Structures are given as C-alpha cells and as structure tokens.
Automatic annotation (TrEMBL):
Domain of life of the native organism: Bacteria
Pfam families assigned: ABC_transp_aux, DUF7088
Ranges in coiled-coil conformation: 504-535
Protein name: ABC-type uncharacterized transport system involved in gliding motility, auxiliary component
ABC-type uncharacterised transport system domain boundaries: 175-474
Length: 613
C-alpha cells in the first residue's frame, strides 16, 4: 500500500480523486459555504437575504475596477477581490433577479466613458498617469441609478450595508417620507463660535440616502398626511399649536422619533449663546411626555462612574475620564428590540434620564441604560465645566439605573383633553401609540461617533461607534422597513483591549488622589514663588537678602521635588500595563515555542517507543 501511495500511479489516483470530489461537491452542494472568520465577513446577513429574495424587478450592477492599472497595489486588489466575491454571493442569492457585470475601464475606452457618466470617482495614479476606478453603479428597470463612487479601504466594515442599501434603494424607488423639526444645524451652516461654514452632519446624509425629508416649522399646526414618521431633534421652542399637532399625530397612528436633551452641547443658537445658564441648551416636549407615561427633568443630566469616556486635556496632560460622556456597550442596550439589538457601541454626552411614570398605562420599554454606579446632577455643572475630572468631586452613586432611550407603546391619552382655544377638540386617546424617545441629541453629532476625512474631494466617513445606526435603525423600524437593520452594524468597529482599559481604570482610581494633591501643591508653590519674586524691585533683583535667597531656593527645590513625585505617579499609572505587556512578550517569544518543541519531541518519542514495541 505504501509503495502504491508513493508511486507515480498512486499520485495520479489521488489527483483524480481530488478532482472527482470537487466536481461532485459543486454539483451536489452548489450553495454550501463555510465562513470561519470571527465576524462572518463572507456570510450575508438575514436582512440582505430578505432584500435579495424579495426582488420583483431585475437589477443590474456594474462593478468598475481598474484591474490592469492596479497590478502593483496588493492591498487594494485584495479589497477589490472581497467586493467582487460579495457581489457574486448577492447574485447567487437573488436567483436571476440581479445581473452582475465586472468591467475594467481601460484608458480612453467606452468603459471609462461609462464610469465617468455614472459619476464614479477616478483616482489619478502618479506613477503611470492613468486613472483608477473602483466603484459600483446600479440601475433598475425604470432607469434609476444608485452609485457608490469609490470603495474606500477605511469603509471596509460597512461593505455589506452599502451594497444592500444600494440594492434596496433600486428595489423600492419610492422612499418613505420623514417630517423633520430640528433645533440643531443638521444641514450645516455658519458656526458662530468659529465663524466658519460647517458641513451637514453625517447622520443627515445617511438618512437622505434612504428617506425623503420634509423640513417642518416649529409653529406648524398640522402634520402633513404624507409624513410617515415624524423626527424631532432638539425640539426647543415649539409652539402650543405644534405640540397639539404632534399629540394628535401620535394618537392618530403616526410614528414619532424624538431626541430631547437637558444640555445640548452642539446648540450654538443665539438663544443658547445669550443664556448664561444651561436652560438655553435644554429641550422638552411640554405636557406630551407626562401624557405618554414618562418622567423627564430637562434640568438634570446623568453621570456614570463606570461608563465614562477617556478624553484628552491638551498637550502635555494625561487624558481624563469624563463621567458625563458615556460609552454604552451591549450590556447596556436592549438585546431584544430590533433597533438596538445589532448595535455594539453607542456614545452619549450630557444625556438626560427617562423614567416610567407611576400609574401610566403606556408601556415603557428601556433601550439604553446606565449602570447603578450613576447619579443625577444639575445640567448647570456641565455648563461651567473646564476640567472633566471636576465631575468626580462630590460624586456619590445613588444605586439607581437611569434610561437614556425608551420605546413607548400601548394605550395613551391626549395631553389636551379640552383641545386648544379656538379649535375643536381632537382625538382623546389611542389604544396603541408607537414612540421612540431619546434623552440626548449630542450622540448624533459627528464628533461622538464618526471620523470624516476628505478623499480627493469626496467626504469619507469612518464610524467608530454605532450612533448613526441607531437613528437609521429607528427610522427603518418606524417606517415599516426592517430588512436593513440586521445589516447595518456589521463590520470592523473598534475592538478595544478590555483588560488594558480595566487596568488603566484601576490605576487611575489608585493614583488620582495623589496626582491631584501634588498638582495642588505644585500650583501653590509656584504661586508663592511668583508672589515673592514680584514683590522685588526689578532693579534690585540682584541685591536680595540671604533670607530671601534661601526662601526662593527653598521654593525652587520644593517645586522640583513635587514635579519629580508627579512624574513617578504618572509612571506608575502604566506600570501594570507594562507588566502585562512583558508577560505577553514572554508567552509569545518563549513559552509558546517551548510548548510546541516539547509537543513535537513527545510525539517523536511516543512514535519511537511504539516502533520498538
């Protein structure tokens, strides 16, 4: 048998058996796939499958990639291969309703003209003078177009969502209509703090890709019938007529998504700038929340000692933990609700607290929550905040969990049982309302979840949190389309070193008091030294008495000693992390090779003993 296996005939038999196995598996198991990647990068999600299997009209996808021009770009070609493999998987699942064309647009060819006509982004290659195309253009039977101008490497984690969004847009030409009332500059404009023009918020650009938006006035007295979902973002200064219109819209079966805030840090309106207190940055819905069974104080924000974000304090200073800016992980999200279940990381800033109202019949279903290591403080504390660590002064958890977002369902009564003066009473109650309420607006701002870069004139957004997914998931859910929800939050978001972060947090707790004490001593010493030197006549600084010279030298020595102690404290902050790194290096460099060597020697020894036996 061994002679046959090592002979030329045996090798030929093995080759033929291998070919036969591949041919049989391709015929008998044409759709079999095995994806062993941790994030299932090559497995399409249920939402994508639902979109593709539900196609009624044919869709054509034209994938443009400059294969010949990119022959020396290994990383880009690997990314292009993944895009092509994903598109072929889409074609297979769609079952004939999706046609895929792979096009290499050569210079001065008709294919290059088509790519330019579709609006694809051409990247010049300085080495050869050619242009690189790497984009997708889709068309449907109505000759409508959807385009991905360029597949940037930074957006690899959003690949499936972008492809599914394009196919879904072509499959459903009529987008749901959203009514928007906003007290924040979502569409961009002039920033009064910097005097510069700002770009539209990324969340608004994402919403525009999937929905038609109607901007409504703050004093509107009736919600238009074509509005399927009403979106309120920082609804500050709504008229009584507008509140009554929202009340009637919800009771009449309309869907509402509202973002209120006790302290909207991105509110740079004239009213907010003129009001020295935090009240100018607060928003509320008046009597509506109480009618829907919600308690909300527009003058209180939530602090959480466990969820605080690490923020920078400027050059030469260690990062500080901001317990008013919070990172919410899956343990703090509702894993059953379709809006929050796919999300992995959310960030909120100076968020308010939502609590169920006693005696209310409306169901209060929490979506985002704090830990029990939290407390409520007046929003004015954040209005005058200079150093985030000041929030730790006097912090004492009240052992209560607060909610930042909730879904409101079930029966609800009107907040205006008598109607408005001069108008007939409207609907008095509803058997089932559908409202999503969020007590923070800053989570929608770019700085809290996405990094935006300019890429040859194209704005490329690279999300590091799921805040944008929260908004679009909620609108998808309320508008009746849930197919994209399971797609949106897949990808390579930041995967932090949890052990290192916990070591860092413990070290900060141990040494924060020492650092603050030394910083205070250093400030007092430098102040006394400055006062002593300022008390001298500038013309007589060289004629100091021996006592004055000794005092100045003593303060200088004391300052140097304090700075030395401060350096030691800061060095010890990272001592545990350095020890962890050393242990990992020892394991990787010495222990693992040693274990492998011992294993091979043991296997060889066992085999030798068996042969002797």
């Amino acid at each position: 048998m061994k002679r046959l296996m090592y002979s030329g005939t045996g090798l030929l038999v093995l080759l033929l058996a291998f070919i036969a196995f591949n041919m049989a598996s391709s015929v008998l198991l044409p759709g079999a796939r095995l994806d062993l990647t941790e994030q299932k990068l090559y497995t399409i999600s249920p939402g994508t499958r639902q979109i593709l299997e539900g196609l009624e009209e044919p869709i054509t996808l034209n994938f443009f990639f400059s294969d010949r021009a990119s022959k020396d770009m290994v990383v880009l070609r690997n990314h292009a291969r993944r895009v092509e493999e994903m598109l072929r998987e889409y074609q297979r699942v769609a079952g004939g309703k999706l046609q895929l064309q792979i096009i290499d647009p050569q210079p001065f060819s008709e294919a290059e003209d088509r790519a330019a006509e579709y609006g694809l982004q051409a990247i010049p290659l300085t080495q050869t003078g050619d242009k690189l195309y790497f984009g997708l253009a889709g068309t449907n039977s109505l000759a409508q177009r959807e385009v991905i101008p360029f597949f940037a490497l930074e957006q690899e984690g959003l690949l499936e969502y972008e492809l599914s969004r394009l196919v879904n847009s072509l499959a459903q030409p009529d987008k749901p209509r959203i009514g928007l009332i906003s007290g924040l500059p979502l569409g961009g404009g002039m920033n009064p703090m910097t005097g510069q023009q700002t770009a539209p918020w990324v969340v608004l650009e994402q919403v525009r890709q999937l929905f038609e938006i109607d901007n409504l006035d703050h004093d509107i007295d009736r919600i238009p019938e074509q509005v399927k979902v009403l979106l309120l973002v920082h609804p500050k200064g709504l008229s009584e007529a507008a509140l009554f219109a929202i009340d009637q819209f919800v009771l009449g079966g309309g869907k509402l998504l509202a973002f209120v805030d006790p302290f909207a840090e991105m509110d740079f309106s004239q009213e907010a700038m003129m009001d020295a207190m935090a009240d100018g940055k607060a928003s509320d819905l008046g009597p509506l929340l109480a009618a829907w069974g919600v308690d909300y104080d527009p003058e209180k924000v939530v602090l959480d000692a466990r969820l605080g974000m690490s923020v920078g304090r400027g050059q030469g200073q260690l990062p500080a933990r901001h317990i008013g800016w919070l990172e919410l992980l899956p343990a703090h999200l509702d894993r059953e609700d379709t809006v929050t279940a796919p999300l992995s990381l959310l960030t909120v800033a100076s968020a308010g607290a939502l609590q169920p109202r006693e005696g209310s019949q409306t169901r209060f279903l929490p979506l985002l929550s704090s830990t029990v290591d939290s407390m409520l403080v007046p929003s004015s504390r954040l209005a005058a905040l200079r150093d985030p660590e000041q929030l730790l002064n006097g912090f004492k958890a009240d052992a209560q969990q607060y909610h930042f977002a909730a879904r409101l369902q079930g029966p609800a009564a009107t907040a205006y049982p008598e109607g408005l003066e001069g108008r007939e009473p409207g609907l008095r109650q509803s058997d089932n309302i559908n409202v999503l309420l969020v007590a923070d607006t800053d989570l929608l701002s770019d700085r809290m979840w996405v990094q935006v870069q300019d890429f040859f004139g194209q704005r490329i957004s690279q999300p590091w949190a799921d805040n944008g997914g929260l908004l679009v998931n909620a609108l998808d859910n309320l508008s009746g389309s849930e197919a994209l929800i399971s797609v949106r939050s897949r990808g390579d978001f930041s995967r932090p070193f949890v052990v290192v972060q916990e070591l860092q947090r413990q070290a900060e707790q141990r040494f924060r008091a020492s650092e603050q004490r030394l910083q205070q001593q250093l400030a007092e010493t430098e102040q006394r030294l400055a006062e002593l030197q300022q008390g001298q006549d500038p013309g007589q600084l060289t004629e100091l008495s021996p006592q004055q010279e000794q005092a100045i030298q003593r303060f200088i020595d004391e300052r140097l000693d304090i700075r030395k102690q401060l350096r030691e404290v800061r060095f010890r902050l990272n001592a545990d992390i350095e020890q962890l790194g050393t242990r990992l290096k020892i394991i990787n460099i010495a222990l693992v090779p040693l274990l492998l060597t011992l294993g091979v020697l043991g296997w060889w020894l066992i085999g030798r003993l068996r042969r002797r036996g």
